[in-house]
C-alpha cells in the first residue's frame, strides 16, 4: 500500500527522478496539475503523494512506477555531479551521463538483489601537485603499472585491467560520436567508466587509459571526454600524458623500437604496424609517441599521411588481421552486468519487463542479450553444471 | 492451457501484457489471431504507454496495436479506482515480490473482471497464482494453439506466424509447449531459434 512507504523516502526518490529527467519543480508540478509548493511538500515527504500523482510524475519522468516503489530500487545518482561541469550541455553528453547513471543504478540493484558484495577498493589516489604535469603523470603511470604488476610489457586488455585490476565498473555502449567516455566515482559504486562502443578499438583503448589518469589523480571530480573538450587544462593534460605513458612507457617503446627496426635505417610502415599492434594503440598514436621520444623526427606522421597513409590492407598484409578484429569488449551490457542480469532472471528475482526497464532496453533487445548468454550456457543449470565452492 | 475450456456465462476477456502484444505484432497476423480467438482481447492503458515509449527506439508495436484497437480487435482500458489497490500492491514492496507496471495492471484488471491474464513470465505467473488461486492464466503460445486460430490460419499459417514471433520478437516458449512448437515449425527452423534450449537446437 502507498501508506506503507515512508513519505520522505518516496519524496526523495521522486526528487532524484525529477533531477535525472532535468525538470524543474515547476514543470513537474504542472504536469500533474498541482502548485509548485505542493510538489516541494511531496518531495520533502511532508505531503503524502496520491497514486494518480505518482502515475503522472512517473510518466513525466520516464520511469516505471515499479521502479519508484520497489524496495531495492537504487537511487544513487551521479547525474547532478556532472551538471556542475561546464561541459554538460549538448544532447549527446547529457544522454551519456544519464546512461552511465542508469547503468550504475542497475548494477547496484542487481548486486543487492542477488546478495553480491563487491569491493570498491582501487589504486591509491595521487592528487595533482604544483609543478611539472608531465613528470607527475609519467611517474604515476609507471607506479600504477607496478601496482598492477604489469611491468613494462604491453597492456593487451586494458578493459580487463580496469575491471579486474582497478575494480572499475566499466560499460561500453553506443554514444554520440563526439563523446569518447565518462568517468565518475561514487562511494557506494566505486569508480565507474563509460566508453563509446562506436569508436574504433584503439580509440576506446586510449579513452580507457585517459580515464585511468582521472581515476588516479582527480577521482572526486566526474569527467566527460568529448571532441571539443578543453584538453589544455592541467587536469586534462595530466590525463592525456598519463594515458600515453600508461599504454606506452618510454623505456618499453625504446626497447621494442630497437628490436623491431633492427637492421633498418628507415622507419617503414611495417615497423609502425608491428609496434602499434604490440602496444595496442593506433598507428598515429604510435608514430607521435616515437616523435615525442625522439625515435622519429617531428613531422613523421605527417609524412606518412602525405604519402598514402598506412592502410588497413597494409596492416592485414603484415599481421594477417586488422587491429580492430579479434576479441573486443563489445558486449552490449558489459560482461559483469550481463551475467548479473542473466542470474536475476534465472533465479526468478526479476521479470523480463522489470529487467528491461532497469537496463533501459526494450524487451526484444534484452531477450537477444539473454539468448546470447543462454546459447553458451543453457540447460538445466542447477543440475548439470559443477558447483562453485565458496 | 486450452483457453476455450474457460467459457463461462459471464463475458470473459483475454487481458494481455506488452510481451504478448509484441509477439502478436511480430507474427504478422495479429489481426487474424485477435479475430479468431474465442474471447476479445483487452490491454490496460499502462501497457499501451510502455509500447508508446518504444516508438522512440524505432519500435512500431504501438502503431500496430492502435490499428488493432481502431478495428475493434483489442480494447484498451484504464484501471478503475477499485483495481488500484491490487495494482499498487503488485508494484511496491520487496522487489522479488513485485512486478513491472504492465504485468501488475494485467493481473489487477483480470481479477475483478474474471479475465484470463495472459502473461509470458514465470515470475509474474507465480505471483499471480499465489495471490489469486482462481485467476486463469495463459501465455502467448496458448493463443497460437487455440483451435479457432489454427482453423483461421491453417497449418502453414500457424507455422509461419510462430516462426516470425520466435525470430522477430524472440517469443518465450514455456517448457510445456516446446514439443508442440518444434513439431509445428519443424526441427530445422527450431534449431535456428535462440529462444530454445541447446538440447532442442542440437537435436
Explain what you see.
Chain A contains 20 helices and four strands. Chain A is elongated. The two termini of chain A are 39 Å apart. By secondary structure, chain A is of the alpha+beta class. A four-stranded mixed sheet of chain A has the order 1-3-2-4, sandwiched between helices. With 203 residues, chain B is α/β, with parallel strands linked by helices. In chain B, strands 3-2-1-4-5 form a five-stranded parallel sheet. In chain B, α1 (18-27) crosses α9 (147-168). Chain B is globular. In chain B, 48% of the residues are buried. The mean pLDDT of chain B is 92.
Helices, strands, pairings?
The complex is a heterodimer of chains A (390) and B (203).
Chain A: H1 7-20, H2 25-31, H3 36-43, H4 51-61, H5 65-69, H6 79-83, H7 91-114, H8 133-148, H9 158-165, E1 169-173, E2 179-186, E3 190-196, H10 201-217, E4 223-226, H11 234-247, H12 250-260, H13 269-279, H14 283-292, H15 300-306, H16 312-319, H17 335-346, H18 352-358, H19 363-374, H20 381-384
Parallel strand pairs in A: 1-3
Antiparallel strand pairs in A: 2-3, 2-4
Helix pairs in contact in A: 2-3, 7-17, 8-11, 10-11, 13-14, 13-16, 17-19, 18-19
Chain B: E1 14-16, H1 18-27, H2 30-36, E2 41-44, H3 45-53, H4 61-70, E3 74-77, H5 81-91, H6 101-113, E4 116-118, H7 122-131, E5 136-138, H8 140-145, H9 147-168, H10 175-185, H11 187-191, H12 198-202
Parallel strand pairs in B: 1-2, 1-4, 2-3, 4-5
The CA-CA distance between the termini of chain A, in Å, is 39 Å
Indicate the structural class of chain B. alpha/beta
- Could you tell me the radius of gyration of chain A in angstroms? 24 Å
Question: Order of SSEs of chain A, N→C?
Answer: HHHHHHHHHEEEHEHHHHHHHHHH
Q: What does the largest sheet of chain A look like? A: 4 strands, mixed
Number of beta strands of chain A: 4
> Which of globular, elongated, flat, extended, rod-shaped describes the shape of chain A?
elongated
Identify low-pLDDT runs of chain B: none
* Helicity range of chain B: 55-70%
Number of helices of chain B: 12
Strand element count of chain B: 5
SSE arrangement of chain B, N to C: EHHEHHEHHEHEHHHHH
Strand order of the largest sheet of chain B: 3-2-1-4-5
Continuous helix count of chain A: 20
Helix content of chain A: 40-55%
> For the report, how would you describe the main beta sheet of chain B?
5 strands, parallel
Strand order of the largest sheet of chain A: 1-3-2-4
Largest interface: A-B, 36 and 42 residues
Mean pLDDT of chain B: 92
The overall average pLDDT of chain A, rounded, is 87
Radius of gyration over C-alpha positions of chain B, nearest whole angstrom: 16 Å
Amino acid at each position: 500500500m502507498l501508506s506503507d512507504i515512508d513519505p520522505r523516502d518516496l519524496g526523495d526518490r521522486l526528487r532524484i527522478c525529477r533531477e535525472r529527467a532535468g525538470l524543474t519543480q515547476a514543470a513537474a508540478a504542472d504536469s500533474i496539475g498541482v502548485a509548485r509548493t505542493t510538489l516541494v511538500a511531496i518531495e520533502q515527504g511532508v505531503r503524502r503523494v496520491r497514486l494518480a500523482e505518482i502515475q503522472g510524475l512517473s510518466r513525466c519522468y520516464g520511469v516505471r512506477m515499479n521502479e519508484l516503489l520497489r524496495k531495492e530500487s537504487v537511487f544513487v545518482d551521479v547525474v547532478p555531479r556532472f551538471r556542475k561541469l561546464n561541459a554538460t550541455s549538448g544532447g549527446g553528453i547529457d544522454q551519456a551521463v544519464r546512461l552511465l547513471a542508469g547503468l550504475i543504478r542497475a548494477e547496484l540493484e542487481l548486486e543487492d538483489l542477488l546478495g553480491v558484495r563487491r569491493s570498491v577498493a582501487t589504486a591509491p589516489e595521487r592528487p595533482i601537485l604544483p609543478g611539472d604535469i608531465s613528470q607527475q603523470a609519467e611517474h604515476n603511470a609507471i607506479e600504477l603499472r607496478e601496482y598492477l604488476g604489469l611491468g613494462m610489457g604491453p597492456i593487451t586488455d586494458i578493459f580487463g585491467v580496469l575491471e579486474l585490476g582497478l575494480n572499475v565498473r566499466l560499460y561500453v555502449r553506443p554514444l554520440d560520436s563526439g563523446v569518447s567516455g565518462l568517468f565518475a566515482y561514487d562511494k557506494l559504486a566505486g569508480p565507474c567508466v563509460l566508453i563509446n562502443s562506436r569508436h574504433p578499438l584503439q580509440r576506446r583503448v586510449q579513452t580507457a587509459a585517459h580515464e585511468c589518469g582521472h581515476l588516479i589523480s582527480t577521482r572526486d571530480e566526474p569527467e566527460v571526454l568529448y571532441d571539443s573538450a578543453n584538453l589544455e587544462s592541467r587536469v586534462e593534460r595530466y590525463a592525456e600524458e598519463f594515458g600515453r605513458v600508461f599504454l606506452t612507457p618510454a623505456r618499453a617503446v625504446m626497447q621494442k623500437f630497437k628490436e623491431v627496426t633492427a637492421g633498418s635505417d628507415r622507419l617503414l610502415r611495417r615497423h609502425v604496424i608491428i609496434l602499434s599492434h604490440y602496444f595496442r594503440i593506433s598507428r598515429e598514436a604510435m608514430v607521435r609517441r616515437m616523435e615525442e621520444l625522439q625515435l622519429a623526427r617531428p613531422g613523421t606522421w605527417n609524412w606518412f599521411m602525405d604519402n598514402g597513409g598506412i592502410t588497413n590492407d597494409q596492416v592485414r598484409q603484415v599481421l594477417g588481421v586488422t587491429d580492430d578484429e579479434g576479441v573486443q569488449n563489445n558486449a552490449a551490457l558489459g560482461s559483469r552486468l550481463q551475467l548479473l542480469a542473466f542470474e536475476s532472471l534465472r533465479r526468478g528475482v526479476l521479470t523480463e519487463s522489470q529487467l528491461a526497464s532497469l537496463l533501459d532496453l526494450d524487451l526484444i533487445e534484452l531477450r537477444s542479450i539473454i539468448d546470447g548468454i543462454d546459447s553458451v550456457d543453457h540447460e538445466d543449470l542447477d543440475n548439470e553444471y559443477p558447483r562453485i565452492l565458496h | 492451457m486450452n483457453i476455450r475450456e474457460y467459457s463461462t456465462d459471464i463475458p470473459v476477456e483475454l487481458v494481455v501484457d506488452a510481451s504478448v502484444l509484441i509477439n502478436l505484432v511480430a507474427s504478422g497476423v495479429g489481426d487474424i489471431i485477435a479475430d479468431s480467438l474465442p474471447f476479445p482481447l483487452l490491454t490496460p492503458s499502462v501497457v499501451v504507454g510502455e509500447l508508446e515509449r518504444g516508438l522512440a527506439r524505432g519500435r512500431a508495436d504501438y502503431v500496430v496495436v492502435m490499428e488493432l484497437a481502431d478495428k475493434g480487435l483489442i480494447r484498451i482500458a484504464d484501471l478503475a479506482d477499485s483495481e488500484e489497490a491490487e495494482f499498487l500492491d503488485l508494484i511496491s514492496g520487496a522487489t522479488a515480490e513485485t512486478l513491472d507496471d504492465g504485468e501488475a495492471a494485467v493481473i489487477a484488471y483480470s481479477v475483478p473482471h474474471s479475465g484470463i491474464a495472459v502473461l509470458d513470465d514465470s515470475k509474474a505467473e507465480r505471483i499471480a497464482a499465489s495471490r489469486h488461486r482462481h485467476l486463469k492464466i495463459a501465455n502467448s503460445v496458448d493463443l497460437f494453439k487455440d483451435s479457432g486460430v489454427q482453423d483461421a490460419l491453417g497449418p502453414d499459417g500457424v507455422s509461419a506466424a510462430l516462426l516470425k514471433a520466435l525470430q522477430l520478437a524472440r517469443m518465450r516458449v514455456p517448457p510445456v509447449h516446446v514439443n508442440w512448437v518444434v513439431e509445428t515449425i519443424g526441427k530445422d527452423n527450431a534449431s535456428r531459434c535462440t529462444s530454445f534450449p541447446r538440447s532442442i537446437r542440437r537435436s
